[in-house]
Design a protein that fits this description.
The structure holds 2 protein chains of 2 kinds. Chain A contains 14 helices and 5 strands. Chain A is of the alpha+beta class. In chain A, a hairpin with a 2-residue loop joins strand 4 and strand 5. In chain A, helix 5 packs across helix 7 and helix 7 runs antiparallel to helix 8. The longest helix of chain A has 25 residues. Chain B folds into 2 domains: 28 residues, no CATH class; 61 residues, no CATH class. In chain B, 0% of the residues lie in helices and 55% in strands. Chain B is elongated and about 60 Å long. By secondary structure, chain B is mainly β. Chain B has a two-stranded antiparallel sheet. Chain B has a two-stranded antiparallel sheet with strand order 4-5. The chains are: A alpha+beta, B mainly beta. At the A-B interface, helix 5, helix 12, strand 4 and strand 5 of A face strand 2, strand 3, strand 5, strand 6 and strand 7 of B. Strand 5 of chain A pairs antiparallel with strand 3 of chain B, so a sheet runs across the interface.
């Protein structure tokens, strides 16, 4: 009897120890507290959010790459050409504020979750901000549009500068979005730049370098250039479907190249990732053959002259055109 | 281009990010495939009729026709909002006089 009690106690002790080990090793979210937002806490102003993902320190050593990036749409993912910011306003008014069950009827009611249909890709770091930042962001977009309407150039430039400071910069790709499978590979850690090597990184704020398991894979780009409707949202939207097309219509037909191979390497554009408005990309994307000749159709005494035009278009990319 | 289905239901299409949630029709170019289009464009002619209004002759007014084929990308589905010409082809074709 005494033996049994001891055995039971030992078993319970073993089970408790296993449970402790299991909790420590396998619990979801291990390493989450080491992320940029985990260390710094959620941003409460746009200025704090910009500082949290400040990539200006990268320019010292990576000026060429910075200059390439600065020419890409990633560097102005919120402002765009002005059209993107304007579309966010109309998406808010025609969408969120008009929907019966969104919980927002005025711009002042807007919270982060209301903006994630756009921000998921145009400003993913907004997930690391409080609702106060969402309200400030919307106020700035309204400020930009009002200034444009009122010909207030000074205010327009101020608002534009704020919106341009929010973008898909080095830290968004090389830290926040560098790991898709966080339960497998861990959460991206503050102080670490994710890329192609493990080791030291000469930067005070980011002294470590680690290999991103997906940086050269198409899935990395697919996080934003996506599959279709974002069903994780309470009101799904569908903007980019390029990665869906890539998976189901390109790789399914035997295609093997990655997004990065075409948009960064073969194009020679590096971090100046472009699409159809770049002649390099548009020329490579579509073979366009036209054959045109004259002919006459005789029907009894009547002859009808006409031009025969045959057009052949072959999409040479790894996704449908157009897409994004 | 893909025609987005409004809220993923019915036959209505919408282009705003706040309502598109499906594809109802797609005139885009699928990857790795060749899409062919065929056009027949009449030359400028004038018909000559007899007293009974029957067409007895179709007179060719110009035996040269300039053909211009453009491949457009219309992000908003019309030529007023940020249209983009992807490819542009021009050729003069003739028929015998």
């Amino acid at each position: 009897m005494k033996m049994t009690k001891i055995t039971l106690k030992a078993l319970l002790a073993c089970a408790a120890a296993f449970a402790l080990i299991a909790t420590t090793t396998f619990a979801a979210g291990v390493g989450k507290d080491g992320t940029i937002v985990g260390k710094k806490g959620k941003a409460t102003t746009i200025a704090e959010l910009v500082a949290m993902y400040d990539s200006t320190g990268c320019i010292d050593c990576h000026e060429d790459i910075h200059d390439e990036w600065a020419n890409s749409a990633h560097s102005r993912s919120v402002y765009g050409t002005g059209r993107t910011a304007a579309t966010m306003k109309s998406a808010l008014e025609n969408g969120v504020l008009s929907w019966a069950f969104s919980g927002a009827t005025n711009p002042e009611d807007v919270e982060v979750e209301h903006l994630m249909g756009c921000a998921k890709c145009h400003l993913p770091q907004l997930a690391d901000a409080t609702d106060a930042v969402a309200k400030e962001f919307i106020a700035d977009i309204y400020g930009l549009m009002d200034a444009y309407r009122n010909d207030d150039e000074t205010k327009f430039e101020d608002m534009k500068d704020i919106l341009l400071s929010l973008n898909i910069n080095c830290l968004v790709c090389h830290n926040k979005m560098a790991i898709t499978h966080k339960w497998t590979d861990g959460y991206p850690q503050d102080g670490t730049i994710y890329g192609s090597y493990d080791g030291e990184h000469e930067d005070e704020a980011f002294p470590h370098a680690k290999v991103s398991p997906i940086m050269s894979e198409s899935i990395f780009c697919g996080q934003c250039h996506g599959l279709g409707p974002n069903f994780e949202l309470d009101n799904p939207t569908q903007c980019a479907t390029a990665y869906g097309s890539y998976l189901w219509a390109y790789t399914a037909e035997g295609g093997t190249e990655t997004c990065q191979e075409c948009h960064m390497e073969k194009s020679g554009l590096g971090h100046d990732m472009q699409s159809y408005r770049s002649k390099v990309m548009s020329d490579a994307a579509v073979d366009f053959e036209v054959e045109a000749y004259g002919a006459k159709w005789r029907d009894g005494r009547l002859v009808t002259p006409k031009a025969i035009v045959k057009v052949k278009m072959t999409n040479r990319t790894g996704h449908a055109i157009p897409d994004g | 281009m893909p025609m987005p289905q409004k809220m993923g239901r019915g036959d209505e299409m919408g282009r705003g990010p706040y309502e598109k949630s499906g594809i109802i029709n797609d005139t885009g170019l699928p990857p790795g495939k060749t899409v062919e289009e065929h056009f027949e464009i009449p030359f400028y002619t004038e018909d000559v009729t007899d007293d009974d209004d029957r067409v007895i002759e179709r007179k060719l007014m110009d035996n040269t026709l300039e053909i211009n084929v453009k491949l457009w990308y219309l992000p908003y589905g019309n030529k007023q909002s940020d249209p983009f010409i992807w490819q542009d082809f021009t050729k003069k074709v003739t028929v015998s006089e």
